[in-house]
Design goal:
Number of strands: 36
Distance between the termini: 39 Å
CATH architecture of the domain at 332-471 and 479-528: Alpha/alpha barrel
Radius of gyration: 27 Å
Shape: globular
Strand content: 25-35%
CATH class of the domain at 332-471 and 479-528: Mainly Alpha
Helix content: 10-25%
Number of helices: 14
Largest sheet: 11 strands, mixed
């Protein structure tokens, strides 16, 4: 990018006076003078989001990414113009939304700003004006985690024709230049690597049902059904008197955003700008003053289509896989999210579960969001070496040791590398990961020194920001934390070892392996409780924790001779929430108990599958206290396991150049899985045929396949190269 001389432009103080501290909307207008050659692209950065028009035509909806490639940095993106602009004078108009507040996925710069560099053209001077129709509509619930505000639009104050070249902006104030690219408060710029969001044309809802408002005040609530949980913007066409407020929300207890529209007189149409998510939309309409002509929505999502697939002979598991994919999709946008309704926060442990699902469900464009999430997480490392999450952030500085260990473990950076072959990213991130790993020290016994030093650590609030260390392993009760953290340390050591060997750092690889071996021996001695039939802290007052048994198997602390005891625990103890249940099921597969893994998956996820929602809940439906959000992608671990373990598809070398087919269908009698790897499309199909199995594998020319059909009786294999 050659943007060093490009200026950031801000609204003058006169346009910001009297405004709220957040959720501000401004219109920028300027001439774009194209000289000899056509202008094919604009490079744009903004705090916070923008909508770009060229000669009156909308080119970008919701451009920009939330701030935070590094704590003081912002993102820039390239907007391709199709067709390119011919030589001459053109008009560029930008609607800028400034969040103006911190959140769990955004660090506010403190000042709205816009930077545009045309390719081979000159742009400016800029005029700017606060859009008089936008206002802050408030929140449904406490929303300190969200930087976004609820969008309000008062149509009585709209400006007619403000996107067109003919609009007269001569009386508008000039925008103020506030420094060149890289200047504070927006900081260094980094390029957005993935394409703009996908947007549909306006669509009718699946159904619309008018119901009297619960308040009995004569208002009508229009319940509008979407086909599935999705990101969308709502729209409406109505006839109304002026000054009537219509509010939009979704059927979901944890929803925070509720945009509002205030009518002008007559027939009118409106489409909101900021996205929401849900399955049922409610328009709250005062019935005596408004006639609804039509209600519609426009779907939007991360630009990676569905390409992977899984099916088997069990409809429940098929539906589980589909729900997991849908949940993954609605937790992807600027960053990976725990949920799109309440936080939109990139928690590191959630992201690790999500990045394992991506290769089996989506087009490879999704790898770019994994890369972005890993780079943000590691590069927000603090001067003392700690890494925390979620990031980007403006009001949360808490380390979650177990989650951070998962990021640098085999399940985090290394898994991304195996699926993509992106060596440059592990070269970049390894030093950060190694520095964090080196913060952990060992006791004389060989066990880790617990982080935090005192168990039961909780976040502390300082100057309105959560800080400290949060001793969090999983939701639920009866959590045996100490053996869990020792296991996560070993898994992290193996991630460091593998990255170090790949990068030619043999001494560091050997050191990590030695640490893993020492902690493994110490954990076996300290936590194996033969009289209780499992691993546990000696003073743990409950039955051995299912999460602990799983991590003992996955980390290698448990020896194969102990597997029957661990499997017995996993047959009766069900304390894991959906986050850690993924690792429990994977441990059963590792211990050769595919039948038990499939049965437990069917049993534990049945309530989530049979719920009316198209996405997976944060917690189990039977947990009566609160099921959490209804769209939490950490619950989608079975998507990975059904492809990776049941169908047996997993990479053996970076980028899938060499891969394994080792099906473990357990109680199933048929399966099919396919994915789009960097080397091409791969598919495996298995069908029980009499006393044996028929297996078909499709793979790209030039790839190497290893097979293990030891869990299939009398397997007959056909290989098809494409």
């Amino acid at each position: 990018m050659n943007v060093n001389d490009t200026l950031w432009w801000c609204p003058p103080d006169s346009e910001r006076s009297g405004l709220a501290d957040s959720n501000e909307w401004f219109i920028y207008r300027a001439d774009l003078n194209v000289a000899d050659q056509a202008c094919a692209a604009l490079r744009v950065a903004a705090d916070s989001k923008y909508w770009l028009y060229v000669n009156g035509e909308l080119k970008i909806r919701e451009g920009g990414l939330k701030r935070g490639p590094v704590p003081d940095g912002s993102y820039m993106e390239t907007v391709r113009l199709d067709p390119p602009l011919p030589p001459g004078r053109h008009t560029v108009v930008v609607l800028l939304c400034y969040f103006g507040r911190h959140g769990f996925s955004h660090r506010d710069s403190g000042l709205p700003g816009l930077l545009i560099e045309p390719e081979g053209a000159a742009c400016g001077p800029w005029k700017v004006k606060r859009h008089p129709a936008f206002f802050d509509a408030g929140y449904v619930h406490d929303a300190y985690r969200l930087p976004e505000g609820s969008e309000g639009f008062d149509a009585r104050y709209d400006l007619t024709g403000w996107t067109t070249p003919e609009f007269d902006d001569s009386a508008w104030p000039d925008a103020e230049s506030r420094g060149k690219a890289g200047a504070a408060p927006w900081g260094p710029l980094e390029l957005r690597e993935f394409p703009p969001w996908s947007w549909s044309e306006p669509r009718e809802y699946e159904s619309v049902e008018a119901r009297p408002a619960p308040s009995g005040d004569g208002s009508v609530y229009y319940h509008c059904a979407l086909p599935y949980n999705a990101h969308f913007v709502p729209g409406l066409t109505i006839e109304a008197k002026a000054g009537i407020r219509i509010e939009v929300t979704v059927v979901q207890d944890t929803n925070c955003l509720s945009p509002a529209y205030i009518t002008r007189a007559g027939q009118q149409s409106h489409e909101f700008r900021g996205w929401m998510n849900g399955e049922t939309v409610i328009y709250k309409v005062p019935s005596n003053a408004v006639k609804v002509v039509a209600l519609h929505y426009r779907e939007t999502h991360y630009p990676a289509p569905f390409v992977g697939a899984f099916t088997c002979n069990d409809p429940l598991l098929d539906r589980l896989w589909e729900k997991a994919r849908r949940t993954l999709y609605v937790t992807m946008r600027d960053n990976f999210m725990d949920c799109p309704c309440r936080e939109r926060a990139q928690w590191p442990g959630d992201m690790v579960v999500q990045l394992g699902q991506v290769p089996y469900a989506l087009d490879r464009t999704a790898d770019l969001l994994v890369k972005k999430g890993l780079r943000e997480t590691l590069r927000w490392q603090r001067p003392d070496g700690t890494i925390y999450g979620p990031v980007p952030e403006g009001n949360w500085r808490v380390e979650l040791p177990a989650q951070m260990l998962s990021v640098i473990s085999e399940y985090g950076i290394w898994t991304y590398y195996q699926h993509t072959g992106d060596r440059a990213t592990i070269e970049e991130l390894y030093p950060y990961a190694k520095r964090y790993f080196d913060l952990w020290t060992l006791q004389d016994s060989g066990l880790i020194n617990y982080r935090p030093a005192v168990r039961g650590g909780e976040p502390q609030k300082k100057d309105g920001v959560e800080t400290g260390v949060w001793d969090w392993i999983d939701w639920g009760e009866r959590i045996d934390a100490e053996p869990s953290l020792n296991a996560w340390y070993i898994l992290a050591a193996r991630g460091i070892e593998k990255m170090a060997r790949e990068l030619g750092r043999g001494d560091e690889a050997q050191e990590a392996a030695q640490h893993a071996a020492r902690v493994t021996a110490a954990a076996r001695a300290a936590f194996w409780q033969s009289d209780r039939g499992g691993y546990a802290t000696p003073d743990f007052p409950h039955a051995p924790d299912d999460r602990v048994q799983a991590l003992m198997a996955l980390s290698g602390i448990a020896e194969p001779a102990q597997y029957p005891a661990l499997r017995k625990v996993l047959a009766t103890v069900e304390q894991a929430c959906p986050y850690m249940e993924k690792y429990v099921l994977e441990a059963l597969f590792k211990m050769g108990a595919a039948d038990e893994a499939v049965r437990r998956m069917q049993h534990r996820y049945r309530g989530l599958v049979e719920s009316a929602n198209s996405t997976l809940w944060e917690r189990w439906p039977e947990w009566s206290d609160h099921p959490g959000t209804i769209n939490h992608s950490w619950s989608g671990g079975p998507l990975t396991l059904l492809c990776e373990q049941v169908a047996g598809l997993r990479p053996l070398s970076p980028g899938w150049q060499r891969f394994l087919v080792a099906p473990a269908p357990g109680t199933l009698s048929a399966f099919r899985a396919s994915l789009r790897a960097p080397v091409g499309d791969i598919e495996v199909t298995g069908q029980q045929d009499g006393d044996g199995w028929q297996v078909d594998v499709r793979l790209p020319e030039g790839t190497e396949m290893e097979t293990d059909f030891s869990l299939l009786k009398d397997a007959r294999v056909r290989v098809h190269r494409t």
